Amino acid sequence: MTGTVTVEVGLGDRAYDILIGPGLIARGAELIQKRLPKARTAIVTDENVAAAHLGPLVESLTAGGNPPAVIKLPAGEKTKSFDSLETVVDQIIAARLERGDAVIALGGGVIGDLTGFAAGIVRRGMNFVQMPTSLLAQVDSSVGGKTGINSLRGKNLIGVFHQPKLVLADTAALDTLPLREFRAGYAEVAKYGLIDRPDFFAWLESNWQEVFSGGPARIEAIAQSCRAKADVVARDEFETGDRALLNLGHTFGHALEAATAYDGARLVHGEGVAIGMALAHRFSARLNLASPDDAARVEAHLRDVGLPWRMADIPGSLPDADALFNFITQDKKVSRGALTFILTRGIGQSFIAKDVPASEVISFLKENHPG
Ligand SMILES: NC(=O)c1ccc[n+]([C@@H]2O[C@H](COP(=O)([O-])OP(=O)(O)OC[C@H]3O[C@@H](n4cnc5c(N)ncnc54)[C@H](O)[C@@H]3O)[C@@H](O)[C@H]2O)c1
Ligand SMILES: O=C(O)C(=O)C[C@@H](O)[C@H](O)[C@H](O)COP(=O)(O)O
Ligand SMILES: [Zn+2]
């Protein structure tokens, strides 16, 4: 597989394409103008991505007759904040973009989530294009329309659903992504196998080295991930049911991100998801829902690829189990005060578990806390 792969997100009159392949950033103007003729643009990006990939996109849009406004922000999770939101909103308005123009997110999930939120609220909703440059953004965050910023009290607590008009995943951009960030994105790839695609998880166990080294296996893994996500989003856009499955590993993972104050030097999102998925499998085994062998298999794969898989792998000390539990109670899946977790009956057999007893969660956190 070397050309461009297209995956459709089937949302009726708001359906859009995900294009996956090398060289798409430099073709930005042509591909965007085809869907949004004559749209003026503002590009939102971060400093790392700007240094590596902004030039060809600006050149393409300028040559197409519409030089873009550029909004550059510091890299990292702390950029998903009210301060950054204010900057982006103000700069879009200052550039006099209209509703029918387009805001482009060029970057990882941080830039995508923040930019999508800004596009969702400026002029009550503007066109928005995702140009994901991290593995995590290409396989997950650029698809499905969840946008937002963090609160110190919990992850992604402020945001809106706002779908992009187009996703352009330039796989050549991954050549400049640091290995730690590639690994973090891989956690969300493995997630799709663990949710309901056991064959995909087994394929990853055999082929992960090729996915990491690039070439056809990498594009195959990205395309499979996008298909898996597009399927769920098309049947449950606003997470009233099945979409919650995409949260496998996130109830624990988001609590750990908040508990480390979104300090990317200690923990980035995909690493939190890796630890969270291992914990979700271990917790399922503790509740006699799944075999401990399956939990061990997940932990072994995460360890093999170099991802953290237990709380003890996070550098520095963590707040105690009660404080971690307090973050869990802010999870968006909580309903009438009852906890919802994504648990599992085995590899690729995840399910939505409502009314999970708080006492079980607290005991489990105490048993697994590094001390
Ligand atoms: N909306 C969703 O559905 C969804 C899904 C998953 C994750 N998320 C969110 O996504 C965020 C994590 O995204 P992320 O892992 O992409 O983090 P990120 O945006 O912080 O990017 C990771 C790092 O890689 C750098 N980078 C990105 N692309 C690069 C490239 N091509 N070359 C060099 N450096 C590059 C960035 O500057 C950053 O330092 C979290 O905030 C998470 O909550 C959202
Ligand atoms: O798209 C979804 O739905 C997901 O849950 C994907 C997750 O990987 C992602 O991290 C998402 O932002 C988490 O959603 P949240 O609603 O728990 O904030
Ligand atoms: Zn995630």
UniProtKB/TrEMBL annotation:
Listed InterPro entries: Dehydroquinate_synthase (IPR050071), DHQ_synth_AroB (IPR016037), DHQ_synth_fam (IPR030963), DHQS/DOIS_N (IPR030960), DHQS_C (IPR056179)
Gene Ontology MF terms: 3-dehydroquinate synthase activity
Cofactor binding summary note: Binds 1 divalent metal cation per subunit. Can use either Co(2+) or Zn(2+).
Name of the protein described by the UniProt record: 3-dehydroquinate synthase
Entry-linked HAMAP family: DHQ_synthase
Stated family: Belongs to the sugar phosphate cyclases superfamily. Dehydroquinate synthase family.
Amino-acid positions noted as binding NAD(+) in the UniProt annotation, renumbered to this chain: 109-113, 133-134, 146, 155
Superkingdom of this protein's organism: Bacteria
Top-rank EC class of the record's enzyme: lyase
EC number: 4.2.3.4
Organism from which the protein derives: Aminobacter niigataensis
Annotated binding of Zn(2+), by residue: 188, 250, 269
Keyword field: Amino-acid biosynthesis, Aromatic amino acid biosynthesis, Cobalt, Cytoplasm, Lyase, Metal-binding, NAD, Nucleotide-binding, Zinc
Pfam families in alphabetical order: DHQ_synthase (PF01761), DHQS_C (PF24621)
Span of domain 3-dehydroquinate synthase C-terminal: 185-334
Limits of the 3-dehydroquinate synthase N-terminal domain: 71-183
Task of the protein: Catalyzes the conversion of 3-deoxy-D-arabino-heptulosonate 7-phosphate (DAHP) to dehydroquinate (DHQ).
Compartment list: Cytoplasm
Gene3D superfamilies per record: 3.40.50.1970, Dehydroquinate synthase-like - alpha domain (1.20.1090.10)
Gene designation per UniProt: aroB
Keyword Zinc: yes
UniProt cofactor(s): NAD(+); Co(2+); Zn(2+)
Catalytic activity as recorded in UniProt: 7-phospho-2-dehydro-3-deoxy-D-arabino-heptonate = 3-dehydroquinate + phosphate
Pathway stated in the Swiss-Prot or TrEMBL entry: Metabolic intermediate biosynthesis; chorismate biosynthesis; chorismate from D-erythrose 4-phosphate and phosphoenolpyruvate: step 2/7
